[in-house]
Amino acid sequence: MTETFKAFRVNHDEDAFSADFTELTLDDLSEGDVTIRVHYSSINYKDVLATKSNNKIIRNYPIVPGIDLAGVVMASDHPSFKEGDKVIATGYDLGVNHDGGFSEVARVKGDWLVHLPEDLTLEEAMIIGTAGFTAAISIQLLEDNKMTSTNGPVLVRGATGGVGVMSVMMLNAIGYKVIASSGQTEHHEQLKALGARTVIPRIDEVTDKALASTEWQAAIDPVGGETLTEVLKRIQRHGAVAVSGHLSGAEFTSTVYPFILRGIRLLGADSVAFPMQRRQHLWRRLSKDLKPEKLHDIKTVIPFSELKTYLAKAEKHDFLGRIVVDLRPEA
To answer: What residue ranges do the domains of the chain occupy?
Structure first.
């Protein structure tokens, strides 16, 4: 393929780190058996980190970041996909060790792809994106642990972030009483409008007690850090916490008491290598019962040319919702 296309590429050599737009050809991209005309990607916090020097996200340079994409197959040597198929890619090595979604054309392994469900558009797939898929994994893991809408409220931490706000909306869509936790008081009313029954301040203190009065049947936690300890103390007997991030830190300290006296489970939500059969099932759910009614209310759609501006906005965590990047040439 000699056609050139626009891409956002990061590079790091002995002299300098760079992150900027460039023109590429297919020969410049990572190997793969499916070539995709990318219509949409999204900005995730992992993408923000990937565009910073001395990051611990990118393994090999140069690389096109962007950990998710949605588009249309241009060519395929994979038996499950053909030209014209609409597809979604999230996770695996995409945008980390394999050229990702911040490119008008992508080439990926067909084993990483999911067919776009009938009841989703390509844009909606990226409003959901990696953040929404992680939220869906968290909900599924908790439901596998017998979480039900009749057993009490569910806590969502970091509720203004991508995983948090998608969790609030999805849980509300399937009938749960959602307690949203956020330190951004200016967004509390918006969280209520999106489905939170109650909004509480950020949990930022850890008490000395080994256990506390129970408040929630389960929790979705993309925040992590030492305050995860406090959440575990307040989960109802035989409940669980699904952890997917470490915004407040990668370490926490806990006694064994929540686990041995209340049977609490700590579940890891891994969106990178989630098994393909379960991945396909969750994307079907995301087009059906987990699809929020107000999905489009949280989107900010930007042209590809404004990517750098919005990466900077995402780094500040000063907004609620999802940033969708429109990579179509006419955008």
So the answer is: 5-116+295-326, 130-268
CATH architecture of 5-116+295-326: Alpha-Beta Complex (3.90)
CATH number of 130-268: 3.40.50.720
pTM of the predicted structure, to 2 decimals: 0.95
The gap from C-alpha 60 to its chain's centroid, in whole angstroms, comes to: 22
Side chain identity, residue 186: E
85-127 pLDDT tens trace: 999 999 999 999 999 999 999 999 999 999 999 999 999 999 9
Residue 79: both structure tokens together: 């038996």
pLDDT value at residue 2: 65
Q: Describe the chain by its helix, strand, coil percentages, rounded to 5.
A: 30, 25, 45
Distance of CA 56 to the CA centre of its chain: 18
Angstrom distance (rounded) from CA 16 to CA 88: 33
Residue that is written with structure tokens 């597809």 in the block: 87
| Distance, CA of 134 to CA of 167 (rounded, Å) | 9
CB 214 within 8 A of CB 220: no
- Is residue 126 within 8 Å of residue 40, measured between CB atoms? yes
pLDDT digit string, tens, across residues 48-95:
999 988 888 888 899 999 999 999 999 999 999 999 999 999 999 999
Under a CB-based contact definition with an 8 Å cutoff, are residues 271 and 292 in contact?
no
Residue partners of 57: CB distance under 8 A and separation at least 6: 46, 49, 50, 96
Q: The tokens 């955008």 sit on which residue? A: 331
**Cα separation, 250 vs 247, whole angstroms:** 8
